[in-house]
Amino acid sequence: MDKITEQQKLEGRKLRPVSPFIYRLLGNVVVNGVLVKKYNAHFTYVDDVSRYRGQSYVVVSNHASRMDYVFTAPAFLPDTFNFVVGYNEFFRSHLAMILRMMQTVPKKNFVHQPYAIRQMMKIIREGGRIILLPEGMSSISGANQPCALGSGHLLKSLGVPVLYTKIAGGYLTAPKYNLEDRIGRVDVEAGVLFTPEQLEGMTPREIQRQLDEKLYHDDYEWNKTARVRFDAAGRMADNMHQLLFWCPRCGGELTMTSGGDAIRCRNCGNGGHLNEYYDLIPDEGSTLPDTPRVWFDMQRGHVRSMVRQEGFTLSERVQLGVLPQHGYLKEQKTSEITGDGTLTLDAGGLHFEGRKNGEPYSFFIPIKKLPTYGMCTDVSRFYTFVDGEFTEFYPERDSTELWMMATEEMHRAQGGLWQDFPWKEQAEARG
After folding, report:
1. Which of 74, 215, 269, 360 could make an S-S bridge to 62, C-beta 3.0–4.6 Å?
2. Is 30 helix (H, G, I), strand (E, B) or coil?
3. Spatial distance between the Cα atoms of 180 and 269, rounded to a whole number of angstroms
4. DSSP secondary structure letter of residue 52
5. 373-383: burial string, b at 16+ Cβ within 10 Å, e else
6. What's the pLDDT tens digit per position in 372-381?
7. Which residues, listed in sequence order, are joined to residue 395 by a DSSP beta bridge?
């Protein structure tokens, strides 16, 4: 008989509301006692959330950074929560034990997963509470992505009050393009988003729309007024070219370089630097957008035009990573390299031709079924699920964000459902 795999163990668990003892030991002591103080988090309440204390409810939040559970859970003390966390995180050795002890729900991002939905419903039925981040992935640009498809239907199905937090300063504390924290200040707003009666009278689409609108936040715009100084020890722009790959002056793709506080184009020299307030300051004679977020939107406009050209293809050599069948990933790894080959995106979808575990391997995902990718850590690699299996791609170039934008815009151009985000018109106008 074959040995049971870690994946089978994970999806065979029947979760329950987290033990108050375990939660308070690991949550209150570590999170509220240490991390909240470290990151200088401040909490404000626009509604009386205490009237729901001890009841079953769901908390949603914008997904500003990898630290969002740290900034959300303390807002609702002394209540305890089961967290919904990316499936792949359960295979990382430094996280696996605590995620299991905390009765955390594993969710495969951007795919339908009945197991995760059943476990959330079970926890709610048994009197527990859940924190989930409906975008499915931490912010790439400093502002929100649309909430994952099905978020409105899930909240309606759970049928309990929906509370929320909106986190400001979280992205600037831990930006997607760099794994080093920058300590400044984090402001957390907490309130009530939906009552059960409101959910009952709304369609899933209406819920999803209001969810997107309520949670929307742009950290760069926030800090124009807040003026919080973030300490990055002279490395504000390190790796930023992985995110902002397109030059706004010469239009070069993958021509940007970055290091220290500076980012500039190899082709034309256009560039500038980020100060400790995340102000984007152009060099003399250079042309840069107002903020990195505006730059990101302009870049998306370029990619949108590119993918709508007849015959568009994007192709690159990649290494292929998967989750271990047995044991856990060590040394902060997010997958095991098991193969390589050529990844290609066109109007039909995503194609791969290469090798895996020493054998020929290929797959195809239709573009309408591929709204976006996930990123485990930073902007150096990306992943999706192929026939339910976590599959991570390590591109030869610093092209992860190009792949993400091209796939998202091709999905939308081909009639994919992941379209509805209230700031779309604004982003398109910038592009």
Report:
1. 215
2. helix
3. 27
4. G
5. bbbbebbbbbb
6. 999 998 999 9
7. 318
Q: How many domains does the chain have?
A: 3
Give domain status of residue 296, yes or no.
no
Q: How many CB atoms lie within 10 A of CB 17?
A: 20
Q: Measuring CA to CA, which residue among 260, 263, 300 is closest to residue 412?
A: 300
pLDDT of residue 35: 78
List beta partners, residue 143. Answer: 218
Domain contains 406: yes
pLDDT > 70 fraction of the chain, expressed in percent and rounded:
95
Distance separating alpha carbons of residues 72 and 416, to the nearest angstrom: 32
234 belongs to a structural domain: no
> Are 347 and 331 a contacting pair, CB within 8 Å?
no
* pTM listed for this prediction: 0.94
N-to-C CA span, the chain: 57
Strands 271-274, 262-265: pairing is: antiparallel
348, 367 Cβ separation under 8 angstroms: yes
pLDDT of residue 331: 86
Of the listed ranges 20-24, 407-411, 417-421, the one predicted with least confidence:
417-421
Cβ count near 250 (within 10 Å) = 14
Mean pLDDT of 277-302: 95
Question: What percentage of the chain carries pLDDT values higher than 90?
Answer: 83
